[in-house]
Amino acid sequence: MNAESIVGIVNNVVDMAQRFLPLIHKGDTKSIDTIIDTIQSMAPLITDQIGDTYTGVKNIIDAVGSHPATTEDQLASLAAFSAKVDADWNAIEGKLDPDSPGNG
Amino acid sequence: MKRIALVLVLSLSLGGCATLDTIQKVQEVANATVPASVVIPAANTFNIVKAAATRYGQYCIQQQMAPAICSAPNRRAVVKAVRAGTNARDRMTGSIVNGTPASASIYNLMVGAISDLKNSPAAASQFTGVPLQ
Fold first, then answer.
1. Domains in chain B: how many in total?
2. Least buried of B26, B63, B92, B118, by fewest C-beta within 10 Å?
3. Ramachandran assignment for B102, one of left (phi > 0), alpha (psi -120 to 50 degrees), beta (any other)
4. Which residue in the set A61, A92, A97 is minimally distant from B54, CB to CB?
5. What is the pTM of this model?
């Protein structure tokens, strides 16, 4: 299954969960936990297929939305994201660059 | 903890659109300096396209540079944009950490790198996970 199909399925499930949430009574923690467990069970699909995109989506939403995260939190999150992205890139840059010695 | 996770995952349903919107809305600015609230989303956007560039690179290496999208000019353009964007991102975030105004000219370099990567083969949905264009 390709990444776009997985994103589509995940989005459909999340959309369905959002529709059910308003129907659940505030005290019905069992139903809430069931939905959360379902969503969490999909996390590996999300992180395996679109991990970097997901992290970026989270960070962007944190930064531009009404999330109570402070700027320090956002910077720490950005630094961690940058470090991962940089390490991944650095691992392949030499082989990808056509102007690197030996890549002629 | 579970509720935090739920909020994050629920954000994803909006995130598909939010990512696209944000990437499309990251534009050059004419002011002398830019605030952290502008720099941080742009830096995250750059990281997203840089991650896509990495997957593009991994693909090209795996395919031994045979596909047309892995031509030397294409790879050269991606490498150049990643280097320029990374340098600009680090300078921008360094300014914020130090509490000094972030230069708009450096910010615009990062926006230019994002634009270049969006127009490169690295922006294909097979590398981004979601369509950017």
1. 1
2. B63
3. beta
4. A92
5. 0.65
